[in-house]
Amino acid sequence: MSKNGLKVILGSLLVMVLIAPLASSQQTVADLKYAEMAHYSWMRLASIVPEITDRVILPVGTIEAHGATCIGSDTYIPVHLAELAAKKCNALIAPAVTHGATGLNIATHPGSIRIRPEILVEYLVDVLEGLVQSGFKNVFILNGHGGNTESIEAASNRIFEKYNGKIRILI
After folding, report:
1. 36 with 96: CB under 8 angstroms?
2. 3-state class of 125 per DSSP?
3. In a 3-state reduction of DSSP, which class is residue 169?
4. pTM (2 decimals)?
5. E strands within the chain?
6. For the residues 124-138, what does the mean pLDDT come to?
7. Is the pLDDT score of 12 beyond 70?
8. Cα 142 to Cα 68: distance, rounded to the nearest angstrom
9. What's the mean pLDDT when you consider all of the chain?
10. CB atoms within 10 A of CB 41
């Protein structure tokens, strides 16, 4: 089986795990006041992860020119999708990564903020590491900007390898 074929199968299995309803009567994210982890103190978060969930959605976008559309649409879309999915898949929502690898041709437009791809990789590794250290075992990255894809894959692979495959990341 090819490496890409294995990724597709593993990704599909992870999606089933993430969206599968819980069979037990334990408390879920839907029972919490907020799905966004930024609303909680570290003490409250420690009682949520992993007792209620070990899943987190990380929205990733960028700030760049989009013609007549707002410069934040690449971030707003994955954030909104995370809000729609969180309670259904029993996941908290991590604060969004709002700056990304915007292309050089777009970076010259007013309001566009460019992060070099290699810097984005390092930033994402640190964000993912923080989520893992908080107790999350399943991370679903919702990417709203195609230019971030390679950086997200590189960072995800580093975390996956560091933890010997014990952390599942779906992009």
Report:
1. no
2. helix
3. strand
4. 0.85
5. 55-60, 92-93, 138-143, 168-170
6. 97
7. no
8. 24
9. 88
10. 8
CB–CB of 26/52 below 8 Å?
A: yes
How many residues in the chain? Answer: 171
**Residue whose pair of structure tokens reads 């580093």 in the numeric block:** 158
Two structure tokens written together for 93? 């929502």
Whether 92 and 53 have beta carbons less than 8 Å apart is answered as yes
> Which residue, chain included where needed, has tokens 């991370």?
139
Return phi, psi of residue 66, to 5°: -135, 50
Residue 37 corresponds to which tokens in the numbers above?
């982890």
Write the CA distances from 135 to 56, 139, 146, integer angstroms. 10, 11, 28
* Rounded distance between C-alpha atoms, residue 134 and residue 119, angstroms: 23
Q: How far is CA 80 from CA 74, 75, 167, in A?
A: 11, 9, 25
Q: What is the pLDDT of residues 68-97, one digit of tens each?
A: 899 999 999 999 999 999 999 999 999 999
Give the integer Cα–Cα distance in Å for 117 and 66: 20
CA–CA gap between residue 121 and residue 159 (Å, rounded)? 11
For residue range 15-55, list pLDDT tens digits in order.
Answer: 545 555 544 558 999 999 999 999 999 999 999 999 999 99
In which band, very low, low, confident or very high, does the pLDDT at 6 lie, cut at 50, 70 and 90?
Answer: very low
